[in-house]
Sequence to fold (368 residues):
Amino acid sequence: MSDSPRPAIGRPRRELADQVFAETLRLVDEVGYAKATCERVASGTGIAKTTIYRRWPTKGELIVDVLLDAFGSVPVVLGDRRLIVESSIRWIASRIEQPGVGAAFAGVFSDAIRDPALRTILATKLQEPYKLALQETLGESEQRVLFLIDLVTGTLLHRLGMTGEPMDDGDLNALIELVVAATA
Amino acid sequence: MSDSPRPAIGRPRRELADQVFAETLRLVDEVGYAKATCERVASGTGIAKTTIYRRWPTKGELIVDVLLDAFGSVPVVLGDRRLIVESSIRWIASRIEQPGVGAAFAGVFSDAIRDPALRTILATKLQEPYKLALQETLGESEQRVLFLIDLVTGTLLHRLGMTGEPMDDGDLNALIELVVAATA
Fold:
């Protein structure tokens, strides 16, 4: 994908992913989730469709990798429950407000309702590491952590869908207080 | 659309809507939101595409009418805050678990993130009557009621997207307790 003089091992594969992820988010932000197809990503990047499909056989798999890349690794927070809850909620809110990320996130959930294979990928690749980190740091049960993930992520995405805007600070603070009270 | 001997005024229009709504929900449940197009609704019902487009110029407008029909009128609950919160949450949860309804609801929010005209329709036609009823019965501010709508609907839809199943009774009760505490 590149002829610039760089260390070879793994680099082209990484650069290909970076280009594909950036173009996917740009398309989702510009034309919406439904119209951001793998075909358009191919024509926008100049990367062959077959190359994209070989690595991401479905749009769902591509979107999950885009989101994993945008979210980055699990933030490790040490401190009391309030600090953990507050920093976790501010972290996911800051990711959801990045251009294209919230719409990609909401779109993939909407697709997943009728797609068991995509739900498995979402649960194992996307949700699992955050779930385990929260179980560990909060000392809550798996069921309770899954409930809190639904609560926080669902609320932030519903706000984005209804208003087209991320949640403002006042309501974000209200959400933090509510979850702090629910984990006390 | 029908040649059966029935009172004429308004009836054919109503029957057309019933057929279109039922076929839309069936399609969303069967093939998912993205593939449930107006074209497929037309071929599934035998109603002309032009007839459907004349009444619902966009898929978003069709889906909002499908949801309004599935939700029905605002339930009037008299009683204390706990009773109002509990019956409202059980009511929306019972609607979201109807076949096709949750997926149509999640899909239209996902589309709305990049579609200001659709957001306006969602806010004024779908959300407004429920918002006003909750402001009136709970005596909470508009901002607080909008926050609680994001919280409850977002949580239920996120659960549906992650698991393909409605929220179980235990977690639904936890959601009710959380909102009761937040409105006390």
About this structure: Chain B has nine helices and no strands. Chain B has two domains: 11-64, 73-183. Residues 1-11 of chain B have pLDDT under 50 and may be disordered. The longest helix of chain B spans residues 116-138.
